[in-house]
């Protein structure tokens, strides 16, 4: 394989590897688990419309800004901002990112653990002959138990740490680029099955027909949080990945391609889920367990459903892994570069800390079901803190930093690869990151938390 990025610092090596790694970060549980259940709770089509506008007007500009910062500075998120803006308070963005990384790792590994358990259940034919009600009960008693969810969560966190220790080229890139196309194919086949179930139309109407009476400031904030979470933006994961890109990477094309792939997978997940939800007579607002309750029904009604179920949960677990490594990498790159820790030591420290927070999160429906913070259990509190507070604020600071602190010439250099590429839509980009994104994020955020 062509070595675009020789030299000492570990980095990605091929063009496809770069897009695949960034897409691997973006595409994960956020698209397939979180997107359908949040759409379901927020009333469907109108949410989708707001979500898509946020991806286009705020998400892509923030993503591109992260790539610009990362590749310019070639450092971890905190170190990158510090090297561009020494002696200022801007590196606080990096510190917020570290906090967000732990919060997200904690609840992400809970759901990834559920996914691993569902790999096990599909191999052991655990869904066979169960009707919709029985599958709901199966999930309900699993999520509120302690042993298995914790076991699988730890397996997932250790797998993540293992890939992180293997390093960027051998680890992240290798795993990302082979498997994602398979996930796409499987999703398409699930969509076909779901769409041919009797009563499927109602699901499509729910997903695509906007009912604006469902929109309120909380729903708008939740759409912003979902857009940020799904694109992996707002906490420096893409600054960190950007720092591994070679000088020849076309940053704007990469941001477009990754966002497009991300949106496509989320919508396909929606088309696979909602027709099935309505065909089965279930409720779309089933919450965090939605896909785990609905999809086993669909698998049972497919030819080869046994194999499809296994393949689906295996691939979803891998998609979750390529995302969680991008979250853990933020902390590990920070610890190795700022504190001179060995990669291995930094990873083990991060793993232990994430596992500690993660345990409380996984027990949110069992041991700690009575713990409630402003009406939310531990899991929902962590998810809300990350998606609706830390990521929007992080995204806001990142566009302000790029738009108002960085010198225009520096941005141009990164976007054109030192004059090699043509500068396209530069004015639009600058206008978005200077005015549109900051104002929109601030208004949505303040409204959504009720301060405005
Ligand atoms: N985007 C991933 C998903 O959709 C999750 C993720 C990976 C993430 N890295 C992130 C979310 C950084 C926020 C920030 O599953």
In short:
The chain is 75% helix and 0% strand.
Strand content: under 5%
The residue fraction in helices comes out at over 70%
* Structural class by secondary-structure content: mainly alpha
**Rg result:** 21 Å
CATH architectural category:
Orthogonal Bundle
* Domains, number: 1
Please name the CATH topology.
Hydantoin permease
Mean pLDDT: 94
Bound compounds, each kind once, are: tryptophan
Number of helices: 18
Span of the ends, CA to CA: 54 Å
How many β-strand stretches? 0
Q: Major sheet: size, sense and barrel closure?
A: none
Spans with pLDDT under 50 lasting ≥5 residues? Answer: 1-7
Q: What global shape is seen?
A: globular
CATH class: Mainly Alpha
Order of helices and strands: HHHHHHHHHHHHHHHHHH
Task: Please describe the topology of this protein.
Elements: H1 15-26, H2 29-41, H3 45-73, H4 77-84, H5 92-123, H6 132-143, H7 147-166, H8 168-195, H9 201-208, H10 217-231, H11 237-242, H12 251-279, H13 290-300, H14 305-339, H15 343-362, H16 378-405, H17 408-416, H18 426-448
Helix pairs in contact: 1-8, 1-12, 1-14, 2-10, 2-12, 3-4, 3-9, 3-10, 3-12, 3-16, 3-18, 4-5, 5-7, 5-14, 5-15, 5-16, 6-13, 7-8, 7-14, 7-15, 8-12, 8-14, 9-12, 10-16, 10-18, 12-13, 13-14, 14-15, 16-18
The structure holds tryptophan (TRP).
Structure description:
This protein is mainly alpha-helical and 452 residues long. The chain has one domain: Hydantoin permease, CATH 1.10.4160. Helices cover 75% and strands 0% of the residues. It has 18 helices and no strands. Helix 3 crosses helix 4 (77-84), helix 3 (45-73) crosses helix 16 and helix 5 (92-123) crosses helix 16. The longest helix has 35 residues, at 305-339. The radius of gyration is 21 Å and the shape is globular. The N and C termini lie far apart (54 Å). The model is unreliable at 1-7 (pLDDT under 50). The structure holds tryptophan. Tryptophan binds next to helix 1, helix 2, helix 10 and helix 14.
């Amino acid at each position: 394989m062509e070595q675009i990025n020789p030299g000492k610092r570990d980095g990605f090596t091929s063009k496809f590897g770069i897009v695949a790694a960034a897409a691997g970060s973006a595409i994960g549980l956020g698209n397939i688990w979180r997107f359908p259940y949040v759409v379901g709770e927020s009333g469907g089509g109108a949410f989708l419309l707001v979500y898509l506008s946020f991806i286009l007007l705020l998400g892509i500009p923030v993503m591109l800004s992260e790539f610009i910062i990362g590749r310019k500075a070639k450092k971890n998120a905190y170190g990158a901002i510090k090297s561009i803006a020494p002696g200022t308070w801007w590196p606080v963005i990096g510190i917020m990112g570290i906090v967000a990384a732990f919060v997200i790792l904690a609840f992400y590994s809970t759901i990834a653990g559920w996914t691993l358990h569902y790999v096990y259940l599909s191999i052991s034919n655990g869904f066979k002959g169960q009707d919709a009600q029985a599958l709901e009960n199966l999930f309900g008693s699993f999520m509120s138990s302690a042993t298995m969810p914790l076991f699988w969560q730890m397996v997932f966190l250790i797998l993540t740490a293992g890939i992180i220790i293997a390093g960027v080229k051998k680890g992240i890139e290798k795993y990302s680029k082979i498997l994602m196309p398979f996930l796409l194919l499987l999703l398409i086949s699930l969509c076909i099955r779901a769409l041919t179930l009797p009563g499927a139309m109602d699901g499509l109407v729910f997903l695509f027909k906007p009912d604006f009476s469902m929109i309120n400031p909380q729903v708008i904030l939740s759409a912003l949080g979902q857009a940020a979470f799904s694109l992996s933006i707002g906490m420096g994961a893409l600054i960190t990945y950007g720092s591994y890109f070679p000088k020849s990477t076309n940053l704007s094309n990469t941001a477009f391609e990754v966002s497009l792939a991300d949106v496509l997978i989320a919508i396909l997940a929606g088309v696979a889920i909602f027709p099935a939800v309505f065909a089965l007579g279930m409720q779309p607002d089933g919450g965090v367990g939605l896909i785990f309750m609905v999809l086993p029904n669909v698998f049972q009604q497919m030819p080869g459903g046994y194999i499809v179920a296994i393949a689906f949960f295996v691939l979803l677990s891998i998609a979750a892994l390529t995302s969680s490594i991008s979250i853990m990498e933020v902390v590990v790159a920070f610890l190795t570069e700022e504190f001179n820790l060995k990669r291995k030591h930094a990873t083990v420290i991060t793993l232990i800390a994430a596992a500690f927070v993660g345990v409380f999160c996984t027990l949110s429906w069992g041991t700690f079901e009575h713990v409630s913070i402003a009406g939310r259990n531990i899991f929902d509190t962590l998810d809300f803190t990350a998606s609706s507070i830390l990521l929007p604020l992080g995204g806001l600071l990142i566009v302000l930093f790029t738009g108002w602190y960085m010198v225009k010439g520096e941005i141009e250099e990164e976007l054109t690869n030192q004059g090699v590429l043509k500068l396209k839509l530069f004015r639009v980009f600058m206008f978005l990151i200077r005015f549109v994104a900051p104002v929109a994020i601030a208004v949505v955020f303040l409204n959504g938390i009720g301060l405005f």
